[in-house]
Here is the input.
Amino acid sequence: MSIQTFAGADRGNRVSSLATIAPLTALANRPSGLINQWLDHWTSLSPLGVGHRENVMEAADRKLRIRLLTIAVEEDLFKVVRRGAADAANALGVEAELDGTPDVSAQAVIALARKALDEGVDGLALNISESRVFAPVIAEAKARGVPCVAFNIDADKGASGNLSRIVQDFAQAGRVLGDRVVSRIPRGAKVLVTVHDDGVSALEERFAAVCEPLKAHGADIARLRVGLNPDRGASVILEALAARPASAIVGTGQADTEAAGIAARTLAPKAPYVAGFDLSPGITTLIADGHIDATIDQQPYLQGFYPVVQLTLFLRFGLAPSSIDAGAALIDRANLESIQQLSRQHIR
Here is the structure.
C-alpha cells in the first residue's frame, strides 16, 4: 500500500474556490508569539488536557503532519477524499497523507494508526468502519497528544473518543434512496439489494434504511455481496439475476452501484431499474447513458478537506472540531451535467 503526500508548498494545484478560506491560511501560519495570549484561556478546556498547551506552542513553529487512514483505499471514492485533503493541505500550509488498506479490515487500519503514531504524526483522521474496536488506539493517540477525528464512517458515533466526525447520515440517505426506488417500480416487485462487503457499518445502515420503504411497498428483497471490483461485481450480479430475475437493483456503495449499472448495460434494453450510492466517472457515465437512474452523493471531497482543516486549527489554536453531515444529495440526469466534469477532477 502506498502513501500519497500533499505538501503545503505546492500551492499551484489548489482550486480557485479555496480563495474563500484565505483568512484561515493566514491564521494557520500566524507566528507563535501571537498565539501565546490565547493559550491559557482554552487549554484547560482542551480534550487533550492542559498539557496540550506545549504541543500547540511547538506546532505553531513547524509544518504539521496529518494522516488520514481508511478501509477500501483503492475505491474511486477515496480519490475524491485525496483531492479534498490535498486542497486543504495546500491552503493551510500543512502536510496531509492518505493511507489505508485495500480491503475492509478495521484491524489493518488500526495497525496503520499505531504506525503513524510511532512516526510522529500530529493529527489523525480515521475511517471508524467498525464499532467497539477503535477506542484503544484513539486513547493511545490522546495520551501522546495527537487529536483524532473520524471521516467517511463513524460506527461508534463519537463514542470511540474522536473529537468530531465528517460522515453521511447513512440512515437518512438510505431512506431518500428507498423513496426514489419505490416511486419507480411496481408494488410487490422483486428487488436485489447489493453490498460490496458484509459487516461494514455504513453499508448495513444504508441497507436497513433502503429496505424500509421497499418493504412498505411490498417488495420481495434479496441481498447480494459483490466485492469491490465493479467489473467482477457485474458478473456476480448477472449470475444472480439469471437464477432469480429482479425488477430493480439497488446498490449501497460505490463499487456495487457501478457494478449494477454495468450489469444493466449488458442486459439493455431489457434491464432492471438501477439506483444506488456515490459518484465515480463510471457511475456518472452510466447515469448519462440511462443505465442508472439515480445515486446519492456523500460528498467525499468534504470528508478529506474538513478533517485537515479541523485538525490544523485545533493543533494551532485549540479551535474545537465539530461534526458535519456530509449530505445526501440525489444525482440523476436532470442535474448530472454540472457534476460530470467535477467527478472527473475528483471533486464530486
About this structure: The longest helix spans residues 300-317. The chain has two domains: 4-168+299-327, 170-297. The mean pLDDT is 88.
